[in-house]
Design a protein that fits this description.
Helix content: 55-70%
Distance between the termini: 32 Å
Number of strands: 5
Shape: elongated
Largest sheet: 5 strands, antiparallel
Number of helices: 4
Structural class: alpha+beta
CATH topology of one domain: Butyryl-CoA Dehydrogenase, subunit A, domain 3
Strand content: 5-15%
Length: 216
């Protein structure tokens, strides 16, 4: 019962991480404009994401524009698009695989095969966390390098947006949830490798002899 609860907890964390990756992928706040000048009147804020750029005016009006060309995008944006989409698809696969092999479902008969299926689902969740971590760290490295580079004009300096922090939180959930699923399934498989056999008590028949079926 405890292992099933831990398995459900890991699955829930994996689902939350998967939803977080999808949210981070769609948000345009991977990079936001940095205001570092002393005397500056903030008239607009620039948001840059994987799919569009947005300009937020001081009046609250926001205008967004989807990128026109895919091939003209920067390498980190192209890699971020590809990896986040792959992670979104793999997260769905991990969800289905884990549900099929979970202890709370009867899709597959309990045994070694069911444990292996759950371990495969947890491994996919861990793989998702590693893959989504690549574009997040890539963007963060570029933002920090440009921010402290004196050759970059202040108007072109950016700061890390909310989407990066959401992505890091989703990565932690995916990794932790996948590890919980794998550890729980491994411990369950170790326990099931030494089954305990019980023999039925021998009961005498009416004529005082033991029934032969008790010896089978």
């Amino acid at each position: 019962m405890a292992s099933a609860a831990v398995e459900i907890l890991g699955l829930g964390l994996g689902i939350l991480g998967w939803v977080g990756v999808i949210l981070a992928c769609g948000l345009p706040m991977w990079q936001v404009s940095a205001f570092i000048d002393v005397n500056i009147v903030v008239a607009q804020t620039i948001w840059e994401g994987l799919w569009m750029n947005c300009v937020v005016q001081s009046t609250g009006q926001m205008q967004c524009k989807v990128y026109d060309s895919i091939l003209a995008l920067r390498p980190e944006v192209q890699a971020g698009r590809a990896l986040t989409v792959i992670v979104a698809l793999l997260g769905l696969v991990a969800l289905m695989v884990t549900v099929v092999g979970a202890q709370c479902t009867n899709c597959i008969r309990p045994g070694k095969m069911k444990s292996r299926i759950v371990i495969a689902g947890g491994t996919i969740y861990i793989l998702c966390g590693v893959l989504v971590l690549i574009p997040l760290c890539w963007f963060a490295n570029i933002v920090i390098s440009d921010f402290y580079d004196p050759s970059v004009p202040p108007s072109q300096k950016r700061e890390m947006g909310a989407a990066l922090y959401i992505g890091w939180a989703a990565t932690a959930l995916l990794l932790f949830g996948g590890c919980l699923i794998c550890c729980c399934s491994c411990s369950q498989r170790d326990e099931s490798s030494f089954p305990v056999k019980y023999s039925a008590p021998r009961r005498p028949t009416s004529n005082g002899e033991y029934d032969k079926k008790n010896y089978v």
